[in-house]
Amino acid sequence: MSVERSPKLIAPYLAVYLFVISFTFYLIVNYWPQTNIGSMKKVRIDHGTTLSNISDKLYKKGLVTNKWVFEFLTKIKGLEKSMQAGTFILSNVHTNNEIIRNIVFGSPNRKKITFLEGWNMNQVARHLSKELNFNYSEVLKLLSDEELIKELQINSNTLEGYLFPETYYFFEGVDKISVIKRLVKEHKRFWSDANLSKADSLGFTPYEIITLASIIEGEAIYDSERSTISAVYHNRLKIGMKLQADPTVQYIIDDGPRRLLNRDLRIKSPYNTYMYQGLPPGPINSPGEQSLIAALSPQNNDYLYFVAKGDGYHTFSRNEKEHERAKRAFQRVRKKVKRERAGS
């Protein structure tokens, strides 16, 4: 006599069988052994890299033995869109699971990069080209990109003045736009409600303060003088006197920085504060925090002139007679240094 098995009786066994098969398959792909257990490899993943390209790169590095298995496991874990960009050092990775965990949850290598106070856009682009291997021309183009500037909510034609000088840590493999956004974000931190209120009380827009701060940055070496230099320019602006700031001329010459010549002071450019009254059209560099503070908080004095002493500091004067005397003193220092150099 034949006994018919009810589908209801078979179903539980079939479910258990399929579960065991599926679970076994998952364990196999999850812990698929790699052949380079003792090796250490450096892998860079750029922004926007597809899972297929990542697995191909890992395969060529000898980090995975089967691209399909690696991709399949990543997908069933739902992590195909969670792969981080950056440069990873992978060592002693025994399984696919360990490789995925390193790239998704690990920390990519970070690179320390310092941007100096007073650097203009060209210098920033050149530094990024050197430190992060970015294309110089592409960075420079982005710094004047209308759409990016609009997205950053900057009211300017370029990002000159907004690339905040500081020491940063970037993940290797970071993209150009992310770096630029980070620098601008740090600049924006300065503009608290209190600082915006200070600018308004002085009768300046934030953009004008940044422009003035960039000139102060170009002149000052020591923090102790920044507010004094700031006062000179504030005093000149109040009485309608030309700023006659050397850094604004350095900004428009092609072979600077160098000692300025009389013909440089006659260059027809709105940035030439020897030729035109008031502030230049925009910043000439990205000023640091101390110069921004100085632009907002000028010292209370009646100085209208200053000239270098030759040691990084300046002599400040209230009138042209005092200024001419200070200039002659500086010329004597310059000649003495020149003689000493010639005799050495």
Strand content: 5-15%
Q: What is the approximate shape? A: elongated
Radius of gyration: 31 Å
Poorly predicted residue ranges: none
Describe the structure.
With 344 residues, this protein is mainly α. The chain has three domains: 7-105, 2-Layer Sandwich (Dna Ligase, domain 1), CATH 3.30.1490; 110-189, no CATH class; 193-303, no CATH class. It contains 14 helices and six strands. It has helices at 7-30, 51-60, 67-76, 96-105, 121-132, 136-142, 146-151, 176-189, 193-202, 206-219, 223-239, 246-250, 289-296, 320-343; strands at residues 40-45, 86-91, 110-114, 167-171, 305-308, 314-317. The strands form three sheets. A two-stranded antiparallel ribbon has the order 1-2. The radius of gyration is 31 Å and the shape is elongated. The model has no long low-confidence stretch (mean pLDDT 89).
SSE inventory with pairings:
Layout lengths: L6 H24 L9 E6 L5 H10 L6 H10 L9 E6 L4 H10 L4 E5 L6 H12 L3 H7 L3 H6 L15 E5 L4 H14 L3 H10 L3 H14 L3 H17 L6 H5 L38 H8 L8 E4 L5 E4 L2 H24 L1
Antiparallel strand pairs: 1-2, 3-4, 5-6
Helix pairs in contact: 2-3, 5-6, 10-11, 10-13, 11-13
Structure at a glance:
With 344 residues, this protein is mainly α. Helices cover 50% and strands 9% of the residues.
